[in-house]
Amino acid sequence: MGAGVGAGRRRRGTAAGLFGVALLVAGTVLTSGGGAYAQPSPSPGGHSAGHDEDDDRDGKPGDNNDNKGGNGKGKGRTGATETPRPTGTPSATRAPSAGSSAPASSAASPGAARPAPGAGAVLALAEAGPGAGLPTAKGLQQALAAALGDKNLGTVSFAVADAAGGQPLYGSGENTPATPASTTKLATSIAALSLIPADTRLTTRVVKGAGPGEITLVGGGDPTLTTLPADQVQIGGLPADADTAPASLDALARQTAAALKAAGTTAVKLDYDLSLYSGNPQHKNHDAENIALVTPLMVDEGRVDPKSREDAPPRVADPAGQAAEAFAALLKAQGITVEGKAKPAAAPAAATAPVLGRVDSPTVARLVERLLTTSDNTLAEAIARQAALAAHQPASFEGAATAVTQELAKLGVPMTGVLLNDGSGLHPGNAIPPAVLVRLLALAASEQHPALRPVLTGLPIAGFTGTLGKRYGSGSGAVDAAGLVRAKTGSLNGVNTLAGTVVDSEGRLLVFAVMTKTTAPADTARAAMDRVVARIAACGCH
């Protein structure tokens, strides 16, 4: 076993040790400054302040969390509650190849305060002991039987597989399409990272207009563009660093004003170009809280209050218009008069139009990590549209769904039963079988697809970060798995899902997906799911 696990069976309940072992994933070591994908290049326009993106996080009373407002009545359905059956039996005993391992830690009581995760190495290869074999279907069945029998789960389907190669180990209803809710973001993220270079940035720019004294603010699809000053930047409740800080609208205004003054211009007319996207900007489940209108130009994700830390904050009715007016006000502060009210451009800006200013988002890899950690619907839809553009599809809900579906098929993902209507998972008609979610996670862990690694590094860590930050705590029945589970959460009304990675007691990395449909309260159903995954973490399951 690796050093982070110890010479004997892993001691559960150790805080630092749990966090260290949680960072185990086969094949690569990734740090906050680089790794499997390109080191982010300096932004020509610079980054500036930002805000947290937790639009569908566990939050408002009455919401079934990750995705508020869904009714669960879609084409997706959960599998039957028959006795779980094996989906694969290991044909040989083997151990993962050697690699980095997490440092050992001293023991602590299960209820001890957890240390905050650092921003250093995120992934390291789990190293099993000599002769350690894969979990068996029989072992998993025995370990999970009691937890799966919890009536709060309702109708449940699930799949468990080895992360190294994706070999199926155990499941029930694993090939039956179910409503994925926010685990849809796994599909969106995998396709986007496959289609788009990870160091790509989304650019917002200002160009000269067709007439004298006219300028155009061109939306580049970056919903994280912010009006906040640098000292107010927070993402998921934490300060942003140089790699994650969003682009600044104020920086764009300063660049533009300097260029205008250099040309002797102090008064302009402003319009804004939204031609990057097509189709209806309103999501089927739009509630002006969990998601904004999906437009290529917006600031602070269209929040009424850019400083809001609410899980589902109120959104403005016209995100693009709000952004343009904010930009006009910032130009005025720089001594540039904007005549009249900013309006939508009559035609797309010319490709050859002189650029007066530009600012760039964090890299797509960082944006994917952010949308997964905080389960950000608006950002997920923006990344889905970038995938559509890269695949030469219309940048719309429909075009994005087509692009993601086609790219996953090219990657060898079995698409039978998969139906996508959006990139965020808010749509209750989405359908994905548990086995497909497991396959997506195995792809992200694969040595053959290092560009997909941000999907794993973006997964919330149980008990520490994102939408799992308040789960796996004391009294949950799953506290021993805190730090050992990284997973994407998902909830619509009556639907709860969890898909991610878990380190078992022998230091082996497994991938899993649990999908439920139940009348139980959301918190109760999610706790029951957490206990299922905790049982996997607690055993070698031979």
Descriptors:
single chain, alpha/beta, six-stranded mixed beta sheet, elongated, 542 residues, disordered N terminus, 11 helices, five-stranded antiparallel beta sheet
Task: Report on this structure.
The chain has 542 residues and is α/β, with parallel strands linked by helices. The protein is built from 11 helices and 11 strands. The strands form 2 sheets. Strands 3, 4, 5, 6, 7 and 8 form a 6-stranded mixed β-sheet that branches. Helix 7 crosses helix 8. It is elongated and about 80 Å long. Residues 1-65 and 67-131 have low confidence and may be disordered.
Q: What order do the helices and strands follow?
A: HHEEHEEHEHEEEHHHHHEEEH
Query: Which residues form runs of ≥5 with pLDDT under 50?
Result: 1-65, 67-131
Straight-line distance between termini: 16 Å
Helix content: 10-25%
Tally of DSSP helical segments: 11
Largest pleated sheet: 6 strands, mixed
| Overall pLDDT confidence | 82
Number of strands: 11
Oligomer: single chain
Kindly provide the radius of gyration, computed on alpha-carbon positions and rounded to a whole number of angstroms: 23 Å
Structural class from helices and strands?
alpha/beta
Q: Report the β-strand fraction as a percent range.
A: 5-15%
Shape: elongated
Give a nutshell description of this structure:
With 542 residues, the protein is α/β, with parallel strands linked by helices. It has helices at residues 15-22, 137-148, 184-195, 249-262, 319-333, 364-373, 377-390, 397-410, 434-445, 454-457, 522-537, and strands at 155-162, 168-172, 201-208, 214-218, 267-273, 337-338, 343-344, 355-363, 485-492, 495-503, 509-517.
